[in-house]
Every structure is written in C-alpha cells, then in structure tokens.
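User: Hi! I'm working on a homework problem where we have to compare a predicted structure to a textbook description. Could you give me the structure for the chain below?
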Amino acid sequence: MVDSSQAGIEQHPTIMTLEEVAKYLRVHKSTVYRMAREGSIPSSKVANQWRFRKARIDEWLMERENEGAIDC
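Assistant: Happy to help. Predicted structure tokens:
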C-alpha cells in the first residue's frame, strides 16, 4: 500500500516537462520558463523543448531550502 504523502510524488515522471515542473513547484509555467532561460533552475533543452530531471529539481529545492529562501 502506498502512503498518501508519497502518492503525489510518485506520479511525477523522472524527466519532466516545463508544465509538469510548474505544477510540481506550484508556480506559473512562465516562472519556470524564465528560470530555465536564466539558468537558475537545472534544465536541458531536448528538441527545442525544456526538460527537467526530477531528481535534480528535488536536489535544487533542498539546496535552496538550506540557504533559507526560494526565489522564483
């Protein structure tokens, strides 16, 4: 049986789209797009589309939390 707190986490794929990251971070997709363009969030372009590794996003979040603030 899956713990309900983990159920939301497991529905996100290993490689996420811009829209999926925005939903995951609960910010507008234009915010994620700007951050990707500026290089302030770990991302890559594949076939001219932004892609994000969930593990790197999680690491980035933890680093930002340890610094005391998350700037969007």
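For your comparison, note the following. The chain has one domain: 4-67. The chain has a mean pLDDT of 86. Good luck with the assignment!
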